[in-house]
Specification:
The protein is of the alpha+beta class. The chain has helices spanning about 1-55, 60-80, 90-100, 105-115, 120-150, 155-235, 260-265, 270-275, 290-300, 345-360, 380-385, 390-395, 405-415, 460-475, 485-500, 515-520, 525-540, 565-580, 610-625; strands at about 245-250, 255, 305-310, 320-325, 335-340, 365-370, 375-380, 400-405, 420-425, 430-445, 450-460, 505-515, 545-550, 555-560, 585, 590, 595-600, 630-635. The protein has 19 helices and 18 strands.
Length: about 625
């Protein structure tokens, strides 16, 4: 029993630690995904500002470019500090703060980096990060070259720098997508590993339970055979060497006894002949009243009803026995008695009680049926899991208690004697609970089918975690919108549908204006609420089947299929801008923001996802810098 409790406790602790580990990993992935969004936003702003500075030679814009680039450089300082030996945690914390990360997320960023930097996915992500930092350093250098070129009035150099900035921006965009993809792959890998470990632990526990159940059933079969054999021995009486026989007198003397009785209590025939044996003296005190009642019955009726008692063995331990006696004919104080050793029977009873306690003490739902599949016993854990009473289950067929692939179950039970798989265990009021089920057949030594033992393990928590991980890999935690990684998949599918139908498809890239001052003035929690409110407005602006996505930071994207014409796309953009410009009321404050919208169209501006996304992104930056009405449709060069 202690072993079973220890196994159950160990598996429970393991599942808890796996859940805790999974939660910490998910939080770490979240902080890096959010940090990547801030990094990408700062990089795009820096590129845009550098373009503007090259065009205008406005030193205020150059200073703004340097401030925007400090976000990326802060993350670079944090990475280098964590890669030191030993890591410089203070410098890393300062770097992440400079990178615009929320103070509450910095400990998670540091811990995740230190603990998982040698894992293949994180190692690949760090390599991409390092490569991106090198490109950021080149961007900073291009800014310095632009400053010097303006000082010299070198227009040719400025034109060349514009081209190099565009090339560098394209490479950084690719690295950003690669970084997000690696983090998503790592998250899925953690989910699979923890799932496999959880399933292995559950399968191990089920195997132990099946083994114990088989042993219990085998012991019951052995006990049944032994009891039948004992009945045959009782019928034989004196012909059986297993039955103790003794002659006694009313004073307790044992006048004679067979070897079975002597061996039962550890005495020799010499000790018997010397008068050393007295049945009253070797009877524990608590059985004296039972002996007195038996003697009174013998005096009245000449015999006593057999009863259970104990004798004290010569070595001091007790021997449980079954005793019956009668008077000799013509005697009033002497008789004969038979004594049956009950040690084996008591051990069997104890084993049966242990078997029952194992069945009822199990935390898994257990059902035992006869060879025809009709329920003969269920444990309390099953009743608690389903809400059904034991009385309502007895006699029902096992296959009526759960839903699964019945044909597969029947075939496996016939060919292999067992089945295991996911199922839905039926509850009251037509409800169900997801379980990992197993059915094992139990046969006699002759090969006859005797029982089926079914064990059901509640996997509701596992199902919930799988759904959470599914959502985390595809949806933004703050707004509930499609995330950047999943959005790329949806773009590809939308293009496939557009190609099949011949319809035009529009892609909108949206960037909020004046969002950073909201964070700076009111705090990130207000900024988060503003982003969620903007997401809701964007969702209600377009049709219910159109796809709205958040790319991180204050950037959003929308896919509108079957848009019709460019004019329709422009009308949608104006509607988006108008709705975003309406005031937001957050925590008693009235907040105003605006947005810039870039639009690309299939097939007008491209035929693949990456090209159309890039075109919408470029159009958004053109809208931000030049479009009077806040949106811009991509123009082919």
């Amino acid at each position: 029993m202690k072993l079973i409790i220890l196994l159950l406790s160990s598996v429970s602790i393991l599942v808890f630690l796996l859940g805790l580990f999974q939660s910490e990993v998910i939080n770490g992935v979240r902080t890096y995904v959010q940090g990547e969004g801030l990094w990408a936003k700062a990089e795009k702003d820096s590129v845009m500002l550098l373009h503007r500075y090259v065009d205008t030679n406005d030193e205020a814009i150059y200073r703004e470019f340097s401030r925007s680039l400090s976000v990326n450089l802060g993350d670079r300082r944090a990475r280098l500090a964590l890669q030191q030996t030993p890591p410089d945690l203070a410098a890393a914390r300062a770097g992440f703060l400079a990178g615009g990360n929320h103070p509450d997320d910095i400990d998670s960023l540091i811990s995740f980096f230190l603990y998982f930097q040698d894992v293949s996915y994180m190692r690949e992500a760090i390599a991409i990060w390092t490569e991106a930092d090198e490109e950021i350093a080149r961007l900073q250098q291009l800014g310095e070259f632009a400053f010097q070129a303006h000082q010299r009035g070198d227009d040719d150099m400025l034109q060349l720098l514009q081209q190099r900035v565009n090339e560098l921006n394209s490479k950084l965009n690719r690295l950003e997508i690669d970084f997000s993809g690696v983090l998503s792959d790592g998250s899925r890998w953690v989910k699979q590993v923890t799932l496999y470990v959880s399933v292995f632990s559950m399968v191990f526990l089920i195997g132990i339970a099946l083994y114990i159940s088989r042993r219990i059933t085998q012991r019951l079969n052995d006990t049944e055979v032994q009891l039948r054999f004992s009945q045959n021995r009782l019928n034989s009486l004196l012909q059986s060497e297993l039955l103790g026989i003794l002659d006694w007198d009313a004073d307790g003397g044992v006048l004679d006894a067979n070897d079975v009785f002597l061996n039962m209590l550890g005495y020799s025939r010499e000790e018997l002949n010397a008068g050393c044996l007295n049945w009253r003296n070797i009877t524990p005190e608590e059985f004296h009243d039972a002996d007195a009642a038996a003697m009174m019955q013998i005096e009245r009726e000449g015999y006593c009803t057999p009863f259970e008692k104990e004798f004290i063995h010569k070595e001091g331990h007790r021997v449980p026995v079954y005793v019956g006696g009668a008077l000799f004919d013509g005697h009033s104080d002497q008789g004969i008695a038979f004594v049956l050793d009950q040690t084996l029977k008591k051990e069997v009873e104890q084993q049966l009680r242990l078997s029952a306690s194992v069945l009822e003490g199990s935390r898994d739902a257990i059902v035992i049926t006869d060879g025809h599949g009709q329920v003969i016993r269920v444990n309390q854990a099953y009743c608690e899991l389903t809400g059904l009473a034991k009385e309502s289950l007895l006699g029902r067929r096992l296959d009526s208690l759960f839903t699964a692939n019945g044909a597969t179950i029947s075939e496996l039970l016939q060919t292999k004697g067992y089945w295991q798989g996911d199922a839905e265990l039926l509850k009251r009021q037509e409800q169900s609970v997801p379980v990992l089920g197993s059915i094992n057949s139990v046969a006699s030594d002759a090969g006859d089918l005797l029982y089926y033992v079914a064990i059901f393990v509640d996997i509701s928590d596992r199902v919930v975690q799988e759904r959470k991980l599914w959502d985390l890999a595809r949806y933004d935690h703050l707004t509930g919108l499609v995330n950047k990684h999943f959005y790329s998949e949806l773009v590809t599918k939308a293009l496939e549908r557009a190609k099949a139908s011949g319809n035009r498809c529009a892609f909108f890239f949206i960037d909020l204006d004046k969002f950073k001052p909201v964070n700076d003035s009111y705090g990130h929690h207000v900024g988060d609420q503003l982003l969620a409110a903007v997401a809701e407005r964007l969702t209600t602006t377009v049709r219910s089947h159109d796809i709205v996505s958040r790319h991180g930071g204050d950037e959003f994207s929308i896919i509108v299929e079957d848009v019709g014409s460019k004019e329709n796309a422009a009308m949608i953009a104006r509607k988006i801008i108008a709705n975003v410009q309406k005031p937001f009321h957050i925590e008693g404050r009235q907040i105003h923001v605006s947005c810039s919208v870039g639009i690309s169209l299939y097939p007008d501006h491209g035929h693949n996802a990456s090209g159309l996304i890039r075109a919408a992104d470029q159009a958004m930056y053109e809208a931000k810098s030049s479009a009077a009405d806040g949106y811009q449709i991509y123009q082919l060069m």
